[in-house]
Amino acid sequence: MNSDVPTPGPMPAAVRLRLITLTADALPAIGDPPAALRKVADFAPAKRARLGGNQIAAALEADPDFRSHVATQVALVLPALSEWVEQGQVPQAADPVDTAVVLWLKRPQGWEEAYTDALRGVQVAGAPQDNSRLGKLEARLAKAEQATRDLKSEHRARIDEIKAENTALRRKLGEARATLRGSGEEAQEQVRQAQERAERAEAERATAEAELRRVKATLAEAQSQLGAVRSEARTERDATALRARLLLDTLLEAGQGLRRELALPAVSGSPGEHVEAEVAAAGTREPSSAGALGPASPALLEQHLAMPRARLIIDGYNVSKSAWPTSSLEAQRVRLLTALGPVVARSGAETTVVFDAASQSHRGVANAPRGVKVLFSPEGVIADDVIRDLVAAEPQGRVVVVVTSDQEIVRDVRRNGARAVASAALIALLGG
Length: 432
Description:
This protein is mainly α. It has helices at about 15-25, 40, 45-60, 65-75, 80-85, 95-105, 110-120, 125-180, 180-260, 275-280, 300-305, 315-325, 330-345, 385-395, 405-415, 425-430; strands spanning about 310-315, 350-355, 370-375, 400-405, 420.
């Protein structure tokens, strides 16, 4: 594959749109996309090409490895055409747009001439026509929506008019009946006309009542949704109360541990209360030695885990790939979880290991030791976002330690009050 040869001439809009669409569909299947496309890969399929088209085009142009991965995925979608391109025997009946896309991605020896031939078959003029038609359709849609709003407003006004007319007609009908005896044929005709108008008004009133019933049904549905929102708000309040209670328990246990560490006797009051309070307050400070320890120091990690009710969150593959890069992912998971057992048992920290499974539908077997929870990120969700959610769920003030060397995660969790430790610190604590 000749990936360094420049593209011969500008790419038509139809070819560019097809290329971006195929790449957007293939993004979730690419294990390590460029950094600029990681957030684009999390978009809904319908939004990837529309919102991330420029980033996708730039990455394809600048990153040959990424372009090669995309070519592999496109070959699964267009297998016959990809095979023809590899053999240099593309039939004339093949779609010129797809042919140009596959040639541009694969770039076999001498692809430029075939690519130029494919571009000649592309109907570039179709794209402006489509855009024009789309603009007309959008204008028609906006006009129809405005007409609907005007019709609703007119309908409400018409209902009010009908009610008023109905009242007036009923009054006239009564007056006509009162004067019927002396009015003769002319009065009878007026009564008949009044009755017809009354019947029309009654029909329109029935229509208005049906509309009113529909509005009431809409109101009932809105009230039901309001009830659901209120229930969700109560659930959120319960979660907040749980976090606050956990923080309170942490503070209480920290105070009890501090009292035991300082061996403070129980007193009912003495002239030395002020001095004792200062000593107790000084005991809550973080040891000065921690400031001299770097984020890759296992001693710093042990100091954090020794604090009361510490919470440990581990970026699984970030640690295992650094420790055992030549092993398979399954072997890395087994070695990491096995080595974590003694550390967690010794520290007592609440521990969760998060493994990235965003591009996988199958989850591997993970036999976690006692005290260790294992999470695989949902399909389409990277482990980084799961770690951020776990940190955000913890109450402010609790000791939360995140083990990762991903600087983007480090910055995010520190903003939420967590303490970040490099993967090398945990690897050293596990014994390599």
